[in-house]
Amino acid sequence: MDRVTRMFRSALLAMAGNRVAESIASRCGLKLGAGRFVAGETMEQALDQARKLNEKGIMATLDHLGEGIRDLTEAQRYKEEVLRLLDGIEASGVDANVSIKPTQMGLALNEEAGYAHIREIVSKAKTLRNFVRLDMENSPYTSATIETVRRLRAEGLSNTGTVIQAYLRRSEWDLRRITAEKMNVRLVKGAYKEPGAIAYPDMKDVDDSFKRLISARLRSGVYTAVATHDERMIEWTKFCASGFDVSPSSFEFQMLYGIRTPLQERLAREGFRIRCYVPYGRMWYPYFVRRLAERPANLLFITKSIFKR
Ligand code: FDA
User: Fold this and answer.
1) Where in the chain is the domain with CATH 3.20.20.220?
2) 137: which of 62, 101, 156, 194 lies 20 to 30 Å off by Cα?
3) Is 160 annotated to bind ligand?
4) Phi, psi of 138 (to 5 degrees)
5) ipTM value of the model?
6) In the 3-class helix/strand/coil scheme, how is 99-161 assigned residue by residue?
7) Is 230 in the pocket of ligand 1 (CB under 6 A)?
């Protein structure tokens, strides 16, 4: 990544946490091109998109957007929405699980209260034979997120897992422990702004780390989700899977809603398990800005869509 792109990315990621920009954006509804990456503002719209994906052989993971909450009443409201979502998935019969953000459940405000909310969700999902993924946020929450999943599993709630980010220097160590515990993991490159002391600043190092994580995990045979749109990483995953004789049922690819859709459909046609991450809700702004930061060309797309109106 060149210096200008890095600066641009860093500026956008700083904007993802800007409250004023967020409140202006959320008043615009899903305009500004965010509709390309967000399925809608309501659960019904998200379930509808999940159904359409299922028709193409693509599973879904649904995420009710929201992060950086300010009090536990908000966390309570988000928890209720996810419980409603689990019922919605069950009632509609779509092939989907859910992804949640630990801080959205209050983990950053009060660890015990956050844990209780997450536990209630995972517990309900268990009775519905569903699965809950704890997304990985920025580095202050890495250990707490992994520990939360560990604690849930120790309580018999094994229908949960988390995410390991290749850009973090600690990830290989984390993955070794998590794999020994047979915890379900999603591997990603990493989407937040992190200091060089703890994260690789160079994309080449991130890619190398991602490849090491993928091969270590596939070799272990523990169920893994490889979440990327990078065809080199997808080819690497296929290469490792065939080299280690891994059954296609013990891993899945994951991609984000609205990104590289033809590639998602192609993997489904090739017989791979593929799941699309479908975000919905009114608090779409930080998620949207992180997607812009990942690819500067997206800004051009957004600018064009605004002027087309
Ligand atoms: P890379 O960024 O190199 O992209 C490869 C190619 O994909 C690009 O050249 C472009 O063609 C396309 N592409 C990628 N991003 C695009 C975009 N925004 N718009 C348009 N095209 C794009 N991160 C995290 O920190 N915690 C988490 O919990 C998760 N969860 C998660 C779930 C799922 C299902 C996915 C796919 C990703 C995440 N991520 C995440 C985000 C992840 O860390 C990473 O930022 C993005 O996936 C982009 O990295 P790629 O591996 O796609 O490669």
Assistant:
1) 40-280
2) 156
3) no
4) -75, 170
5) 0.97
6) EECHHHHCCCCCHHHHHHHHHHHHHHHHHCCCCEEECCCCHHHHHHHHHHHHHHHHCCCCCEE
7) yes
User: Has 151 been labeled as part of a binding site?
Assistant: no
CB-based contact 102:141 (threshold 8 Å): yes
Query: Which of 59, 135, 138, 189 gets mutated to test ligand 1 (max ligand atoms within 8 A of its CB)?
Result: 189
Rounded distance from Cα 50 to ligand 1 centre (Å): 19
Q: Which one of 9, 133, 186, 273 is the catalytic residue?
A: 186
Catalytic: 186?
Answer: yes
| Structure-token pair, residue 267 | 């993997």
Alpha helices in the chain (DSSP H): 3-16, 19-27, 43-55, 72-92, 111-127, 142-154, 171-180, 203-220, 231-243, 261-269, 285-294, 297-308
Pick the CATH number of 40-280 from 3.40.50.720, 3.40.50.2000, 3.40.720.10, 3.20.20.220: 3.20.20.220
Q: How far is the CA of 277 from the centre of ligand 1 (A)?
A: 11
Is the C-beta atom of 117 inside 6 A of ligand 1?
no
pTM of the complete model: 0.91
The model's pLDDT over 118-137, given as tens digits with 9 standing for 90+, comes to 999 999 999 999 999 999 99
- The token duo for 78 is 């988000």
